[in-house]
Amino acid sequence: MLKQRKSIVGLDIGSSSIKAVELTRDKYDFVITGYSQIEVHNEAARQEAIAELLRAARFRSKRVATAVSGKNVVFRYISMPEMPEDKLVQAVRLDADKYIPFAVEDVEIDAQKLALVQDGNNKNEMKVLLVAAKKSVVADHSRMLVELGLQPVAVGVDGFALGNAWELGDMVNPGIQDPGRTVALVDIGATKASINILRDNVSYFAREVPMGGQDLTNAIARRLGIEPAQAETMKRDPGAEVAVVQEAVAQVLEDLGNEINLSFDFFENQFDGEVQEVFLTGGTALLPFLEESFERIFEKRTKTWNPIEGLKVKADNVDVEALNQLAPQLAVAIGLAAAS
Ligand SMILES: Nc1ncnc2c1ncn2[C@@H]1O[C@H](COP(=O)(O)OP(=O)(O)OP(=O)(O)O)[C@@H](O)[C@H]1O
Ligand SMILES: [Mg+2]
Is position 197 within any domain? Predict the structure, then answer.
């Protein structure tokens, strides 16, 4: 019986916070069998922080799924003729020098099929997301994980992990979504916002916007003439100062919201459909007034999304209170685990 259970840790190494969620499949259920989170802002301290996190988490599995990001990873949204998915990466690789700013031999290339659409001549055309990561970056990343005693089984990207978390939610909460519905998942971290637009669980568009919670903190620090660390504390727990905080971050939120809105416009023009609902995750989604600010900018129903809804939790190894409270921040970690 026990042998049938397959566990995997989704390890989301964010720029400000490392999140790890262990997901175990038990017949038809998905169970969170471990969870831990640690804040680290300094890249040099990351490996030690992950070691500490692993000691605290007491995961049963060494298998991890992670993601790469940053300036050494590029995304390109391209069109390809329809072809079998197993031929796609090879075909994209042949053409890759047209799209990426690195030498093809220096990068690992992955390609994800997005939607199938008809081109002007009624021929099927595949929309494809090309991801190119410097080989040295992927190798360093894997080496670090192996040094930590882990077994890396997959390296993905945040945007697609979000889509996988959504699909998992669909599986464990059957009937909750209307067929044909188009949703935008938006994960707002410290330094970036990852967007993934899905229709019937198929990804049509994915993009990253280089803005996030750190910009809000900096805006508070500037406006009030205080240190960033103090501004960070105030942002997370403004108490009676909520109006002051809201006012200080208003312009940054407006800029970020408008930038995200451009992606919705792009999707709507390209695919002749409408984003009907927006679901927010990431640490910045813990901001209580984010929903209403963004709903006003997007003019679409906008909600904070809880990616652990419908999952079981093994309470003897998980801090259930922290898990529930920080759930929106765990969407990428859960999606990484769910995909593998
Ligand atoms: N209670 C809170 N209210 C508002 N913002 C918060 C709260 N808790 C955390 N944040 C913010 O969330 C951000 C961290 O979120 P998250 O863990 O999703 O980011 P990350 O994955 O480390 O960053 P990135 O994805 O950009 O690399 C920080 O900017 C932090 O200030
Ligand atoms: Mg993140």
Answer: no
Nearest-angstrom CA–CA distance, 152 and 187: 24
Does the predicted model carry a pTM greater than 0.90?
yes
Antiparallel, parallel or unpaired: β 124-134 and 73-81: antiparallel
Contact 164, 157 (CB under 8 A): no
pLDDT at 5: 60
State residue 176's pLDDT score: 66
Domain count, the chain: 3
Question: Which ligand 1 atom lies nearest to the CA of residue 217?
Answer: 31
Q: For 108-115, what is the mean pLDDT?
A: 85
**Domain extent at residue 113:** 73-136
Distance from the alpha carbon of residue 138 to the mean position of ligand 2, in angstroms: 17
150 and 27 assigned to the same domain = yes
Residue 338 has pLDDT above 90, yes or no: yes
Residues whose CB is under 5 A from ligand 2 (ion)?
14, 189
Q: Are residues 36 and 62 in the same domain?
A: yes
CATH of the domain at 90: 3.30.1490.300
Among candidates 314, 316, 335, 289, which has minimal Cα distance to 29? 314
Instruction: Confirm whether 110 is domain-assigned.
Output: yes
Token duo for residue 308: 């652990």
Q: Are residues 224 and 282 in the same domain?
A: yes
Q: Is the CB of 112 under 6 A from ligand 1?
A: no
127 vs 257: CA distance, rounded Å = 25
| Residue 247: CB atoms within 10 Å | 13
- Burial class of residue 306, CB neighbours in 10 A (0-12, 13-18, 19+): middle
Ligand 1 pocket, 286 CB below 6 A?
yes
Spacing of C-alpha 197 from chain mean position: 12
In this predicted model, what pLDDT tens digit does every residue of 193-236 receive, in sequence order? Answer: 999 999 988 888 888 899 999 999 999 999 999 999 999 999 99
